[in-house]
Amino acid sequence: MAPVPDPRLRRAVSRAAGSLRPVRGLAWASRTLLLVAALLAGGCSEQPPAARTSPAATATSPWFDGPFEDALAQARASRTLVFVDFFTTWCPPCKKLDAETFSQPAVQAELRQLVALKIDAESQKGVPLARQYRVGGYPTLLVLDAAGTEVGRMVGFLPPERFLEKLAEIRARAAR
Question: Which of 86, 78, 91 lies closest to 143 in space, CA to CA?
Fold first, then answer.
């Protein structure tokens, strides 16, 4: 096996692998491969940990478990609005919104009155929807009618009280 051409890279990988001295042959390569595999295993998920759990499995979750088109169909059948949370996995305000706002019982109760859907705006299915709805920042929270027409928009982190106020305003506007 050929040695790593850049000694700085070899030292960095050696330090990252933990007290690994520059070793020749398979010992260095196998430890490096294990390190890379461990790093990849921890960061390859398309969705954040909160979204990986199926909402249908949790009776208390307000989130719809299905594709966007099915959410619109559910909204038509139940004659209600669709709430869409466009997020990304790397977005700190998105994570703060999940932890501080969407976790509140009063917010969850309001979301249960709608068809609430989380969409990773950088996923294969999320990119065209984010483009369609002109999502330019994260999180972007949309309220749509059952036909998919936008009736309201919120952008960025909102604390629970402000979120509930804005959602009530949008719902009142849509009811007219």
Answer: 86
Within a 10 A sphere around the Cβ of 132, how many other Cβ atoms?
Answer: 11
Which has the closest alpha carbon to 113: 51, 176, 171? 171
What are the structural domain ranges in the chain? 7-43, 49-175
Q: Are 139 and 156 in contact (CB under 8 A)?
A: yes
SS3 16: helix
- Per residue in 3-41, pLDDT (tens digit) is 445 555 455 444 444 444 444 554 544 454 444 444 344
Superfamily (CATH) of domain 49-175: Glutaredoxin (3.40.30.10)
Nearest to 66 by CA among 53, 76, 54: 54
The pTM for the full model equals 0.67
**Contact indicator for 128, 145 with CB cutoff of 8 Å:** no
Decide if 83 contacts 158 (C-beta within 8 A).
no
